[in-house]
Amino acid sequence: MPGSFEIIKKQLAVRLKHAAAEESIMLISVLKWTVLATITGVIVGFSSGGFLLLLKWATNYSGQYYYYFLLLPVGFFISSVLVKYLAPEAKGHGTEKVIEAVHKRSGKIALPVVPVKLVATLATLVVGGSVGKEGPSAQIGAGLASAFADLFRFGNSDRKKLVICGISAGFASVFGTPIAGSIFGIEVLFIGGMMYEVLLPSFIAGIISFEVSSHLGVSYFYHAIKFAPTFSSLFFSKVILAGIFFGVCSLLLIEGLKMGERIAHRMRFWLPLRGIVGGAFLIVLTLIFSRQFLGLGLDSIQGALTGAQIVWYAFLLKIVFTSITLGMEGSGGIITPIFFVGATAGSAFSSLLGLDPATFAAIGMVGLVAGAANTPIAASILTVELFGPAIAPYAAIAAVISFLISGHRSVYPSQVLAMAKSPSLEVEKGCEIVEAHPTFALREKSLISFLYYRVWRFLCNLGGRRDEGKR
Questions:
Q1: How far apart are CA 212 and CA 447, in angstroms?
Q2: Exposed e or buried b for every residue in 85-121, given b needs 16+ CB within 10 A?
Q3: Do 398 and 455 belong together in one domain?
Q4: 196 and 140, same structural domain?
Q5: Same domain, 81 and 149
Q6: Where is pLDDT greater, at 402 or 460?
Q7: Which residue segment(s) compose the domain that 113 sits in?
Q8: Is 109 inside a domain boundary?
Q9: What's phi and psi for 354, nearest 5 deg?
Q10: Shared-domain flag, residues 137 and 203
Q11: For the chain, what is the domain count?
């Protein structure tokens, strides 16, 4: 017995020693990333806050003149020249390039991207380009985080984490949603997967960035939805139908952006000249319709969320305006246009079924974020932070359905697939979404699976595809 006791004592001592070593390493890791994420949050908070205040002043100044949009060709020309000759990485809507840098270059972002993206976005938005403000903030923040990592000679792994923190902090500081912003940064990289190893630093960076921007004087939009529907099978069915509708709207937005790029690429001439042509085309559309679809469109978003009457086709026109802006060398983000499309699509959906317009405008906003950006968890949390908990359960259901209905598509083509959205589809996991070519997989000989297969073949034939799937 004494011998057995000594063996147990030694084994216990070894286990305690290993446990102590593990806990010590984890403690050091927590302290390390608390410090680094705090520094990143401060950097992004100051940069985003300064950008947002400058943008607010510039747009307020240009908005004093009714025909400010006549300068659209000039703004697009300036944006295109800056991006083409100074920082090609600054092209597009920002967040996409950061995702690409994380997956392909361990988060390495050239420092000139920061000032070029700032000026190019200002040049686009001041004259009325239909883009958002979160993409530039994320790219500027991520670029500064990358520069910080290079300054102190951090390794590729640490640089990547800091850049992801920059995405989270940028989203949080722009929309005033620190929790949703933190989740967005780690969810947007993969479809069906999240980098939990960056969860703590993303939360810290998002919260710090939000607090810094708030103290700089950046104001945020919050709109509590007081309408609390009584649960019923009928209302729940309408929420499910709304989720399907918002998924289709997400698909239209994604494909609209792709079409805008394809049309622009067919114009094989000097890129700044392409910007002039795109700006001129937007002037014509604005004169035909209205200024409602220019710029950030915050008035229309707030109007939809307060139940104001919105023309039913507003979300379709916003897709057109945004596709032209980004395809024709404009620079800016994509989330704010997604908010516009979602809110106005929700308003149109509510008018069709006689529902509360404010409630479904809010559900539409988060539903489009989930479907177009493939971030259903961040979108669900966004509901609570922007609109309160009353509609959160319904918005979460609609967001997840929209995420599924939009399929293997995204406004961020560099997202990496970590899962198939349906067990009846096969996709190559680990590749970028732009490279994904889903095929049907008839895994079992049930009636439902057979019907799935027939629908898949019908739609493929309708679209001119030869891929009939695997049997």
A1: 57
A2: eebebbbbbbbbbbbbbbbebbbebbeebbebbbbbb
A3: no
A4: yes
A5: yes
A6: 402
A7: 21-215
A8: yes
A9: 70, 40
A10: yes
A11: 3
Question: CA-CA-CA-CA torsion for 293, 299, 300, 302, nearest 10 degrees?
Answer: 150
Is the domain of 323 the same as that of 277?
yes
| Angle in degrees, CA 346, 347, 348, rounded to 5 | 90
- Identify the three-state secondary structure at position 407: coil
Judgement on whether residues 211 and 278 belong to the same structural domain of the protein: no
Between residues 13 and 406, which one has the greater pLDDT? 406
Rounded distance between C-alpha atoms, residue 366 and residue 339, angstroms: 7
Lowest mean pLDDT, pick from 75-89, 175-189, 402-416, 454-468: 454-468
What confidence category does residue 449 fall into, taking pLDDT thresholds of 50, 70 and 90? low
Q: CA 222, CA 239: separation in Å to the nearest integer?
A: 22
Report the run of H or E that residue 258 belongs to, with start and end: helix 233-266
155 found inside a domain: yes
In a domain, 15, yes or no: no
Residue (of 179, 180, 174, 142) closest to 161 by Cα position: 142
Interval 30-57: pLDDT, tens: 899 999 999 999 999 999 999 999 999 9
| Domain annotation covers residue 395 | yes
Q: Which of 191-195, 282-286, 423-427, 462-466 has the lowest mean pLDDT?
A: 462-466
In three-state secondary structure terms, 417 is: strand
Residue 90 is encoded by which pair of tokens? 């600054």
The bridge status of strand 439-440 relative to strand 425-426 is: antiparallel
Structure confidence at residue 465 (pLDDT): 54
The angle formed by the CA atoms of residues 98, 100 and 102, to the nearest 5 degrees, is 70
Cα-based torsion angle of the residue sequence 310, 312, 313, 319 in order, rounded to the nearest 10 degrees: 60
The CATH number covering residue 239 comes to 1.10.3080.10
Residues constituting the chain: 471
| Distant-in-sequence, close-in-space partners of 375: CB < 8 Å, separation ≥ 6 | 183, 184, 187, 188, 369, 403
Two structure tokens written together for 8: 């147990």
pLDDT of residue 46: 92
Tracing tokens 């923040």 back to the chain, one arrives at: 141
